């Protein structure tokens, strides 16, 4: 897989104009202008850069994730360094909006260098982008205008500090808008929880649990066509519990039924649930239920 270590080499591959700054670039369409279009298709690639792009799709129809959206309102994408990127000609549209691209080293020595890693939306798949209202668009566009002014001006001792300050503000607004999106998309959240539970039920009933062990959250998320981080964040917002907690609760529910079968030992129940070490199962059960598996059996007068 091809990897690009610099912003310039990445732009050269995309067929975009060379950036004014070796580690930072901003494209901002205004009036009748469109964003410059990158190459029409690409095999999987990676790079060492962050990308924040806000785009309005002017031509073409696109189902975004599992839902069809109105693209006359914009969508905001976040891409972290070393995320695998791939696209084909069906995804190329004439676009308006803005695109920020900056090398991870641009943030070195700043507080934002660590803080940016805590924003979950950089881990989301592209079908989980942020959909902005017109008011939210205007708030971000004003920030981009300030960044562009500094980018186009002659660089001085304050330029980088001002750009990073504006970038920090943009990310804080994006975080606020994502909170709003999670609240407004309860129907999708409920759908994800239902899909999550159906997948686990099918996995358990098919015998895969005993053969392959407990499925990872990433494995479940892949089957649901969402990212691991987005699945956990969405379930957390809707239910107060992460995807890992929901998986554990599902395991405990199955364990309760199995423990009530007197012909099975506690170790057998643990192994059947995919636990390699029975003591770990016992600790998890006690943590979730307040009593050990042995005490649970005793409570129901089973030996």
TrEMBL record:
Pfam families: HTH_18
Residues of the HTH araC/xylS-type domain: 194-299
Key words, A-Z: DNA-binding, Transcription, Transcription regulation
Database matches in SMART domains: HTH_ARAC
PROSITE patterns on file: HTH_ARAC_FAMILY_2
Matching InterPro entries: Homeodomain-like_sf, HTH_AraC, Tscrpt_reg_AraC-type_HTH
Name the UniProt record assigns to this protein: AraC family transcriptional regulator, transcriptional activator of pobA
Organism of this sequence: Tenacibaculum platacis
């Amino acid at each position: 897989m091809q990897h690009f270590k610099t912003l310039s080499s990445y732009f050269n591959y995309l067929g975009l104009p060379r950036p004014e700054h070796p580690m930072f670039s901003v494209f901002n369409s205004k009036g009748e202008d469109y964003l410059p279009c990158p190459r029409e298709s690409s095999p999987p690639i990676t790079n060492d850069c962050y990308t924040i792009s806000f785009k309005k799709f002017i031509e073409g129809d696109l189902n975004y994730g599992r839902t069809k959206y109105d693209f006359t309102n914009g969508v905001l994408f976040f891409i972290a360094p070393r995320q695998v990127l791939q696209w084909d000609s069906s995804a190329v549209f004439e676009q308006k909006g803005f695109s920020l691209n900056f090398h991870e080293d641009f943030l070195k020595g700043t507080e934002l260098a660590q803080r940016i890693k805590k924003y979950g939306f950089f881990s989301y798949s592209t079908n989980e982008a942020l959909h902005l209202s017109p008011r939210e668009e205007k708030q971000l566009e004003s920030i981009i205008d300030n960044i562009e002014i500094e980018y186009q001006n002659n660089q001085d001792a304050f330029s980088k500090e001002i750009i990073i300050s504006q970038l920090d503000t943009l990310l804080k607004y994006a975080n606020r808008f994502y909170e709003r999106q999670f609240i407004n998309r309860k129907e999708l959240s409920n759908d994800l929880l239902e899909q999550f539970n159906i997948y686990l039920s099918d996995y358990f009933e098919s015998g895969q649990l005993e053969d392959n062990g407990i499925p990872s959250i990433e494995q479940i998320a892949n089957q649901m066509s969402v990212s691991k981080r987005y699945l956990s964040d969405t379930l957390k917002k809707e239910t107060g519990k992460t995807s890992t907690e929901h998986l554990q609760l599902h395991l405990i529910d199955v364990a309760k039924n199995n423990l009530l079968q007197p012909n099975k030992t506690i170790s057998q129940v643990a192994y059947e649930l995919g636990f390699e070490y029975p003591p770990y199962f016992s600790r998890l059960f006690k943590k979730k239920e307040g009593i050990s598996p042995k005490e649970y059996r005793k409570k129901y007068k089973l030996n």
